[in-house]
Amino acid sequence: MARKKIVAGNWKMNKTPSEAVALVEELKPLVANEDVDVVFCVPAIDIIPVAEAVKGTNIQVGAENMYFEESGAYTGEISPAMLTDAGVKYVVLGHSERREYFAETNETVNKKMLKAFEHGITPIMCCGETLEQREQGVTMDFIRQQVKVGFQNVTADQAKTAVIAYEPIWAIGTGKTATTEQAEEVCAGIRACIAEVYDEATAEAIRIQYGGSVNAGNAAELFAQADIDGGLVGGASLKADFGKIVNYK
Ligand SMILES: O=C(CO)COP(=O)(O)O
């Protein structure tokens, strides 16, 4: 069975609540496409107004991070129950920016993965190599470790519903997209890794996105690859171009 494509915008630290609502209103008609899962992953403070603004549309709301405890003395953090109560269906975990600036590790990503599943939130787990790692020829070793540790104790049934985003760090926000061949090669490698950890059925079901300078011009070719099931889009998710990416065909 063909996997349904999933195109998610990662707004990062952009848009105040009122700007967020205005952007949703602008994008709503442009992203109407029932053949694709469309997700807006937005800053925590924008989640409630965005959830309200997307009511009655095909757009799902995602968070950009989440903590792995239920509640308590964790000043500044957001719990899984807070997200689900606000209508969140997806959460981006382990984005390279969180790994670089906020000390996220494979182990904390794994704890968050387990919590997300427990609460019925679909994780979009990010992985990806640095330029140095690519040049050293260790891309797949590094990514396999991110995936294997990130999925520790995740069941096959849970893994089947998960999303993995392959985002080469050197392609994020740089305008430098991985070539279609490079992107497909790694996404196929991630699927093979899932097949090893679980089984073929899980590898066939899991959705793998490419992220890193996806735009209206390159989406169609990237999403046509056998192992690329959509995209995680940064910069281009904040403008009308996102509609063209969702309607890439
Ligand atoms: O980090 C990304 C999405 O999570 C990619 O960002 P850009 O699309 O701006 O390169």
Folded structure, characterized:
- The chain is α/β, with parallel strands linked by helices and 249 residues long.
- The protein has a single domain (5-246), classed as TIM Barrel (Alpha-Beta Barrel).
- It contains twelve helices and eight strands.
- Strands 1-2-3-4-5-6-7-8 form an eight-stranded parallel β-barrel, surrounded by four helices.
- Helix 1 links the parallel strand 1 and strand 2 (36-42).
- The two termini are 19 Å apart.
- Bound molecules: 1,3-dihydroxyacetonephosphate (13P).
- Residues 10, 95, 167, 172-173, 211-214, 232-236 line the site of 1,3-dihydroxyacetonephosphate.
- Its main location: cytoplasm.
- Involved in the gluconeogenesis. Catalyzes stereospecifically the conversion of dihydroxyacetone phosphate (DHAP) to D-glyceraldehyde-3-phosphate (G3P).
- It is an enzyme of class 5 (isomerase).
In CATH terms, the superfamily is: Aldolase class I
Bound molecules: 1,3-dihydroxyacetonephosphate
CATH topology (level 3) name: TIM Barrel
Helix and strand pattern: EHEHEHEHHEHHHEHHEHEH
Provide the CATH architecture: Alpha-Beta Barrel
First-last Cα distance: 19 Å
Report the mean per-residue pLDDT as an integer: 97
Catalytic activity: D-glyceraldehyde 3-phosphate = dihydroxyacetone phosphate
Protein name: Triosephosphate isomerase
GO molecular function: triose-phosphate isomerase activity
InterPro entries: Aldolase_TIM, TIM_sf, TrioseP_Isoase_bac/euk, Triosephosphate_isomerase, Triosephosphate_isomerase_AS
